[in-house]
Structure formats: structure tokens, C-alpha cells
Amino acid sequence: MTDTTHTPTEDALVIFTPSGKRGRFALGTPVLTAARQLGVDLDSVCGGRGICSKCQITPGYGEFSKHGVTVEADALTDWNAVEERYKTKRGMIDGRRLGCQAKVMGDVVIDVPPESQVHKQVIRKSASQRDIVMDPATRALYVEVAEPDMHEPTGDFERLVTALQQQWGVGEVAAELPILRRLQPALRKGNWSVTVALHKGNHDARHRILDIWPGFHEGKLYGLAIDLGSTTIAAHLCDLHDGSVLASSGVMNPQIRFGEDLMSRVSYAMMNPGGDVEMTAAVRTALNGLVQAIATEAKIVPTSIYEITFVCNPVMHHLLLGIDPVELGQAPFALATSGSLVLDAADLDIKAVNPAARVYILPCIAGHVGADCAAVALSEEPNKSKEMVLIVDVGTNAELLLGNESRVLACSSPTGPAFEGAQISSGQRAAPGAIERVEIDPETKEARFRVIGSDLWSSDPGFVAATSNSGITGICGSGIIEAVAEMRMAGLVDQGGLIGSADQTGTTRCIAEGRTHSYVLHDGTANGGPLITVTQGDIRAIQLAKAALYAGAKLLMDEMQIETVEKVVLAGAFGAHISPKHAMVLGMIPDVALDKVISAGNAAGTGARIALCNVAARDYIEATVHQIHKVETAIEPRFQEHFVNASAIPNAVDTFPELSKIVTLPQVSFNTSGSGGAGGRRRRG
Amino acid sequence: MTDTTHTPTEDALVIFTPSGKRGRFALGTPVLTAARQLGVDLDSVCGGRGICSKCQITPGYGEFSKHGVTVEADALTDWNAVEERYKTKRGMIDGRRLGCQAKVMGDVVIDVPPESQVHKQVIRKSASQRDIVMDPATRALYVEVAEPDMHEPTGDFERLVTALQQQWGVGEVAAELPILRRLQPALRKGNWSVTVALHKGNHDARHRILDIWPGFHEGKLYGLAIDLGSTTIAAHLCDLHDGSVLASSGVMNPQIRFGEDLMSRVSYAMMNPGGDVEMTAAVRTALNGLVQAIATEAKIVPTSIYEITFVCNPVMHHLLLGIDPVELGQAPFALATSGSLVLDAADLDIKAVNPAARVYILPCIAGHVGADCAAVALSEEPNKSKEMVLIVDVGTNAELLLGNESRVLACSSPTGPAFEGAQISSGQRAAPGAIERVEIDPETKEARFRVIGSDLWSSDPGFVAATSNSGITGICGSGIIEAVAEMRMAGLVDQGGLIGSADQTGTTRCIAEGRTHSYVLHDGTANGGPLITVTQGDIRAIQLAKAALYAGAKLLMDEMQIETVEKVVLAGAFGAHISPKHAMVLGMIPDVALDKVISAGNAAGTGARIALCNVAARDYIEATVHQIHKVETAIEPRFQEHFVNASAIPNAVDTFPELSKIVTLPQVSFNTSGSGGAGGRRRRG
């Protein structure tokens, strides 16, 4: 039973699932050919020559009433020698066929499994309508090249290009000299067939051959998505064929020794002739080390890495490129270049990867809002949000995006490294042994906590044993936020950020340190461990950081002429670990219902990965950044006013009605300079 | 008196000569603006800002009846301070004005002198209808760039590009990292004006900034046109603004130590692993030396060289690029790449020029017919000839082109270095002291000659004194051709190439050397000088070389199905010095009326210079080479037959009717093996 009148002996109906695409084909047509003619997404690297096995399909047999077709057992040609050889050598799931070998002999329903699709979904975006499908700039293509003909002379390269154009439908193709040098031996060794790694630039219409191998090349091509932060350089190693992440790794940015935050690095370049060159050399050396390390971890040779995408803030951007960032340290904060860049890895002295590897650096938005913010915009797509969303990428510098499908604003705010555990007396990086969660009983003022590496609370039986390897070593970024917020909720800290004395708070955990007080979170001294306290200085550092963040958000809201936002997205490696409630108690983010605070993980890193896996995303973000309006915090007079108000916990003027529904903050004051100590005593509610 | 009705106070008629373009313009319009709007070719580097002085024009005053206009003395605004300052500083021809300063105040006739035209004619081609006008790929452009605006953030580079697009109408613009590094300081030092060296690729639609200077840059940009031959590397240093040749220089190709001719170099690469790398390094080192030398000679800094064009045969082409030429040594003689190439000079290790300098290598036609032949085709344009023309570029390898506007054929022929004086017993390079012209009296068999460096014949009074500095040192290529041809005409050499004995020829200048004879051209031994003879071996070497050349021409004529050609063009540095009559007596070239044999000088070098000065010529020759059909001499059976016939002087089978009209060759034979010595005696006519 078929859906149109036809002569059964001449052609047959082929239906592909899940696409539902269908068409009639002459008997003997290979399934791959049918798929291509119908525009079905069926992969092939070898061009249908039974070599690569990427075109595996699953034929369905029996009655398919939904499609109005019955598939007979002989609907495809028999399992053939090529398939047998492949299965013996590599293995193949039962019921699978090679689409290039199996030929249509009757009506048939063909399922294309996800792994046989070129445009596999690989990056499921956290807060977005669409998923990212594979469409990488660099892919491996197998071609058979015409042999030279003395009477119709053309270069071997020109014949290779013709083959690529005819067999793969690519446009103009170029090759650098090192590839031209290797071309003739490869063609002859491969008996006029080669595999090339072909790179499609999004700026330049021409493709470029990055590598060439005789015959069919089994090896995989890899790419790196790098989030180059002021403090940390994080990299994801991805398979450029299926988008899978083989390894993720990070190293400290060695530029830290020239200055902890961005402006201190710009100052270093200003004060020290050649300082920018030093910092450029440092970060490039670190990148080479990171490439080696991640390749070793994933057990691949680093020369099989053909692409790198970078996201970074403007100062990191300039220092990576070898451009003196001095102009970024002073108004009008002019970038040397704001557009995206397509480079050779060699231009950046990244030598560990393939010598022909290409680099794509996402565009910057402005002098203080960099490619990292563009990457967040690519990943989170505020420009497609129906709700008014505030996206906060918390790092040494915070990037903020506010907007919806009508308009998007961006700014950056110099939060400093406090949120990352730096400038905190017991602060440390997020690592095993670091306190990451804190709870303080509002009655007893006793604390319990969890450390990275264990799911147990410190009050749980077995906690000591579970943490004996790591110990309890300090407080990481999310831990300090929770600690300060819990201290505020427990009435140990007042709105102004002062820690009360033991007398004022009624707990001996508040100890005097000079003229101020500290709260003892954990005393490990009896066992030779550290005394972990939250000091008045720690509170001040957090106040400065969170006030900068909130003031930035308020500036964007002023520009947008709104009083409240509808959704908050916390991004950044750190953002994923922040408790929304504690962030709001601190007044880090504007008041919003807690279920409207969403964690997006490392959105900048995700943006880098999207740009790595999908070349069209590069065009998309280049167009999108032009529509994002940048607000300059550094010269906006209202920033200072917002900042001062936001120094209070949660805020001196802004009310937090959504927060009030779930948390009542004690009305305490420990400021003894005016009303005396007793007046500050906590009133029990 | 004007040609249209108008209100005299509002606009005026402006007529440009020599173009004849005319139009009405509002009073106060600068002459440069009027020129631009009419499409008149009036130069400007600074964009009309009174800085560069390239827009000088000469206004005409009085009655111009031809144009129907009378020009009053106040037709242009008065000489102004900008012009005064320029004239004081640099000087200016009386009557000249700066087109950007002088404004139209009444009807006026404006002459644009040749040096103020952008598209100056610079290369007058020897045998062609059209002349080459300046349209170089790289030019200096002055631009004023918008200052950064914090509220509308864009990169400095992006604003520079916008300025270039708005002020110079260019398309997409790119810059490499070294330029981006220098961009911000240059813009600020130049108070937001810069001059850039902008390169327009013919493959890539994008322009590229090669250099940048603060403000207006006075310095000139230069280019090199290089003819990379097997034996000699010749370079012309050209001003990229006006096309003038500042210096021409040449060095020996150091690859000679690996083999005198092309095939021996290919053999060296085959027999010695890494041999190709050695030869590549040798030629690149020589190129760096040549760049330094020619820059020193012209008194310019080599970093002001921004472009190099190369022409060369396929083996030189591959060795320059670092590609092993092994495939060129065996059928099917496959080139690694036949297309033109656009590279960085740094890709070829040419370090002496500007670090951003670009290289253009003309396309090859086939495995034995290279970019040098393409350059000859560009210079001589056989494809535009109404006559059937044979173009012979004589070098160590001869390149031949045959055709007319209907069809063009090409081949190469391995003549070897005999025509360049190598493999000749008294042979030497063309240098002072070398015999270049020879006459032998057919009656007395006495010779007279001229040497390079003097216009006197050796029979003239004062010859000895005139040549006392150089001496008489040997025979150069054109000298040996004349000597052998004169010997044939004087009956000293027979059709088979045998030199007769003193007895057979009746002159004691024929001396025995073993079983063969030599002819004494000059005996300097009495004064300690050399004995310069033409030996039987010399005749054999010339026979082999000229037979190869003629056989190549005959193959092309066979393919074209013609018996005679209508014109012969002798190209190559050597071709310029060959006497057409003597070449035809030898049977080097097909029979044609002597006035139809034309010397084109170094046509390959001219082609390189055309490609340097005119970027459109690159597209043109790339399209043209595809229409040139290549004939492969190496595997064509008829080549051998033609070669054997052409070994006779002039030829065993072909008649030379045109030659017969002016020269009667003696019917002599000195072959004593068959009919004995006496039978070979010359019969006097």
C-alpha cells in the first residue's frame, strides 16, 4: 500500500524519520542518496564510499499505518561485504545499515538515529528557546581527486579544490604554503584520495584547508572553547564532529602577579614600559600550558586541535592580542578594535595546537563590556526574552545585561575578587575543604556548614570522617555570601554591616579583634586546624563588591526606566553556586520572586562553546552586539549614589518586598558611636 | 560666452583637459571636488586637505574658442595661504594651483598635467595596443578618524575603517595584529588623522592595512618586480605611486651550485633527501640579499617596500614556495598549484622588506610552462595579435607562445645554457670584454668583432685603446650566435655543422684540434690574452640548443596547423641582443621577413612590472592563462623528428624562402667519412 500510483518495479517510496521527509526513488538508489536529495540530515564524511560509517540508519519493517506504508523484508538490498567488513572491524548496532551501501528496493521507512545527524543538538541552553546544533567551522572531508592530465594541465591543488566543490558543494578554497608542501605526497600516497580538515571562516567567504591526510582519515578534529578571565582561564575541549566535551580544565591567570583586578593590570602597563608585553607573554605561556594539560587529560594529541574560540573582558582581550590596554584605563575607554577577530593560533603564539589552527574571538560590546559579555548574550539571549531579565555574570569584574526582546542594555561593574574568596581573611578558591554552605541558628547563633567534597553538614554524624582528607581549610565565594547573609538574618550583623560584640549578640562566637568583632565559623585549632572567622573586614569587602554589583543593575534599570525586573539569571562559574535567597538578603541583586532567580552556570563559557560548535552563531552574535546598548558605569554620577545606598544590607533605600515574604530581617544596630551599645541590642521579634 | 543659459552668479562651467570632461558647478566649488564629480582622473592622497600636493592643476586663461568659453583672470579664488606654504616648503611650477584649494568662481578651463593623474601611463608596452596605467594594489591614503565616544562605543579600528570607507570609498578592510598594536598610539599622535598603506588583494575582496603613520605621511611606498630565472634573479624597484623604476639589479641564482639547468636541480632534489629545502633556503637568502642591494642602490629603506611580484618557471616557482619539485621531473609533470598566489613576504622568509609586505606570484600555465611565460603573455599579449605571432623567450629554458586573437599555444623547450654563453669553450656572461657581434668576410674568411663596452669594431682604429680596460675576454650568447652564423655564411661550417679544415676552407684561421677543427676568432696570446676560438664542440652545443628551440616552435605550428608564422618576437634579456638575421641563418626561429622579427626586451620582467603597477592586470592574466593551450614537448614523438631536422644549419628539410632573399648560404660539406675531404670543398659561387 503506497500513497501514489506508480509502477512497483520502477521506483519506491522512502520515508525518513524523525524528519517525516518522503519521496519516490528509482529502485537501486542508495539510502544516502535519497536522504541527500530530500535534504534529510544524514551525516557522511567519506561521501558515500563505505569508509566512514557516519551514515548509519535503521530501516523499519512491517506495517506503518501512520505513514500508509508496509515495508517488506526485502525493501533494502542485502547486507553487503562493505558493511560486513565495517561491522567486523568496528562493530555496529544490530539492525543498523550503512546508508551509502543499502539500496532502496521497495517502499521503506528509514530512521536516522541522532548520532548519524550532521546537525546534532549538542548544547541544550539553560534558559533559551532553541538548542545549538552542530555546524562547526572546521570539518573533515574525504574526497577523490582527478589525476593530473598532461594535456589538460592543472595544479594538484586546483584539482583538489574542484573535487571539494563538486563532492562537497563548498565555495572558494585556499591553502597556506605548509599545506601546499604536503599536498602532492598525500595525493599520491592516498592514490588520489585524501581527507582534508576544511575551515569555513565567517568573515572570509573562502574555505581554508588546515590539514591533509592520504586516503580516509580516521582521526578526530577537536576545538577549544576558552573563557579567559582575569583570575581563571577555563577551557572546554570539544569534539568538532559531535560537540561532546572531552575535558574541561582551568588554570590561574598568571597575570595575577601584575595585579589582582583589571585596573591594577592596566596601571601596571601604564607605569612599567613593556609591562603589557610581559603580561601578554604570561597569558600566552599559560594558554600553551593549558592546551597541553587538557590534551593530556583527554588523551589526545594537541595537534589535533584545529580551532579555538575565546571569550574575555576587554583588558584580557587586548593583552591576549598583544595590544597595550592603556586606553582602557581612562575615559573614553576606547578599544583598539571591538569587532570579532579571526586569527591563526600562531598569531597568538599558541604553539601547542595544530600549526594551522584558527582562532575566533567574539566581539566586544564596549571598552568595559567585553567578549565575555557578548558570550553571555549569545548563550542566554536576553534579546529573545519576553520577560525583563537581568543577567549577572559574577567574576572579578561583573558583567550585567538587562533587557527583553525590545531592548538590551549592558554594563560592567568592578566588583573586585571578594566574591571569589580573595580579600577575605579566611577566603580561598572553591576547592575541597572550602566552606561553601552556611546556616546560623537565629536562636542559638550557632553555625553549621558544608565543605566542598562532602554532602554532609558539619552537624551531621560522620562529617569529621568524611572531611578528614580535605580538612576544613577556609571559605569560598558562595560560602562567604551565605555566611554574611546568615549573620544578617541571625541578627549578628546590622543593616550597616557592623558585627555585634558577644555582649550585643549574646554569643561567644562573636569575638573582639581590636576595635571590631569577628564571628567564629569554625575553630579547628584544637586539632591543629585553622580558626575560621568572618571578620569586620570581610563584611566590608563583601559590602563593596555587592554594592558595586547592585549599583550596576540599578543604573541599567534607570536607563530602562523600570523599578523592578521580572527575572534574574546568575551566570559565571561562581553564579551557579550562589543561593538566590542569600544573594537577595545581601542585596546583591534586585528584589524578585525567588523562583525567578535562575542559575545559568558558566554562560560565557557556554557562549564560547556555542561559537565553537556553530559557525552561524558567530554571525549572529556579531549582529547582536550592535543592538546592545552599553551604559558606562565609571562616569555615571548616579552610580555613586546607588553604590552608597547598596552598601547597606540589603539596601538603605530600596525595599525588597519579595524577600520580605520569606525572610524577616532583625532590626538590629551595633553602631555604638551614636546611641551606645545597649541601643543596638537585638530586639527579639 | 558659455554654452548653456544660466545665472552667472550661481554657477560656472568647468572644462578639464585633456579629458574634455565638463560640467556646471556652484561658485566656490573646489576644483578637486569638480574633478571627482566628473570622474576626472585627478590625484589626491590627503583627500583634499592641502597636505599632499598631488592634485596640482594648471588653469588656462583667456579665450578658448574650441570650448566656447572665455576664462577671466578671477575665474578661480586667489592663491591662498595653504598654497603659499606648500610652495615655500616644496616648490611648485609657476602657473600651477592646488586643486583642493582653488575654488571655481567663473567659467574656467583646467588642465590636469600627467603627474597629477592617478592613472598615469607608466609602462609603454613594446608590441601592444595598450599602455599600462598606474593602479597599484598598495597605496597611501590619508584619513581623518572620528574620536571615540564613550556613549556610542566602537573600536578605534572600526572607526578607522568607517573613515576609509567614507573618505576613500573602499570596501571591507582588515588589519593584522601588528597594525592593531600600533593603531591607538598612531591615532592619538596624529590627533585623529593617520596615513595608511592600504593593500587591495585581487583574490580577497578585503583591503588590508599594511602600515600606519600618525598624520600625513610624506614617505613613498615601493614595490619590487622580480624575474626569478634559473641562472639570474633580476629585480626592478618601482615607486608604487608613479610607477617609475628607481633601480634595476640582478644576482646569480645560487641554486646553480645544485645544477645548471632545471632538470639537474629536480634531480638533485630527487637524489638528496632535503635537497629541495637546501635549494629553497639558497634562493630565499639570495632574494634577501638582492632586496638589500637594490634598496641601497636606490637609497631607500627596504622596509618601505610593500609589495613584490614574482615571475618564474615552474621549478623555480616550487623551490621559491618550498615545495619539492620532484613531480615536475616526471610525466605527467603535475604542478602542486598552478594558480596565482597571494602571500606575505614573510611566508617566503623575505625579511628585508616591510614585515607586512605582500607577494603576488603570477599563475603558471602548466608543468613546464610557468609564471614567466604567463608574464610574457601579459606583456606581449599574443591573444590580442591580429598576426600569427611566435614569441620566443630565450633563457636556460625557452618559453614559446604561438597564436593570435583566435587561439594561443604555449610550450617550453630545454635549450640549456649554451645561448647564455655557458657550455661554450670561450663562452662567458654578457659583461665588458665579451665578444657580442661578429662579422666574417666570405672572401678572406677574416673576422672582425665588437666587444661589450665599446662601439668600435676590432678592425677600427682605436679599438685596442678603447678595449684596453676590459680586454677581450670571451664570447657571450649573442656573440656565439653571430659567430656560428657568420661561419656558416662564410662557408667555414657546413649544413651538418662541421667546421672545415684549413685546407678545406682555405684559411689558416681554421686550426686542427684533435680530429676536429676550430676557428680562431681572436688570438690575444701575443699580449698575454686568451686564444678565442669557436670549436666543433661549441657548434654542437649551439646546434642542440637551437634545434630544441626550433623543434618547440614547430610543434606549436603543427598544433596550430600552420606552415609559417607572420611575426617573431624575441624576448628575454638575451633576446634583445640577438641579430634576427643570424638567428635565422642558424635556423633558431622559423623563416619570416626580417622586419617581422622584433625584440621585446625582458618581456617576463615587464610582465612582472605590469602586475606590480596594475592590480587589474592580475585578474586579466589569471583569466588569460586559462585560454592558453599548452603543448607538452617532452612526450611528443614529433619533437624528436623536428629536433633532428633542426640540428642542420639552418634545417635539413625546412626551406627558408625569406632568408634566401637576403642570404645565400654556400653549399659546402666537410664530411670526409663518405666522399672524402676534397668532395667537401666549398664550391665558389
From TrEMBL, chains A, B:
Q: Mention one GO molecular function.
A: iron-sulfur cluster binding
- Alphabetical list of Pfam families matching this protein: RACo_C_ter (PF14574), RACo_linker (PF17650), Raco_middle (PF17651)
Q: Which Gene3D superfamilies match?
A: 3.10.20.30, 3.10.20.880, Domain of unknown function (DUF4445)
The RACo linker region domain, residue ranges:
128-218
Superkingdom in the source lineage: Bacteria
Checking InterPro entries in the record gives: 2Fe-2S_ferredoxin-like_sf, 2Fe-2S_ferredoxin-type, Beta-grasp_dom_sf, Corrinoid_activation_enz, Raco-like_middle, Raco-like_middle_sf, RACo_C, RACo_linker
UniProt xrefs under CDD domains: fer2 (cd00207)
RACo C-terminal domain segment(s)? 387-659
- For the RACo-like middle region domain, which residue ranges apply? 222-380
- Protein name (database record): Drug:proton antiporter
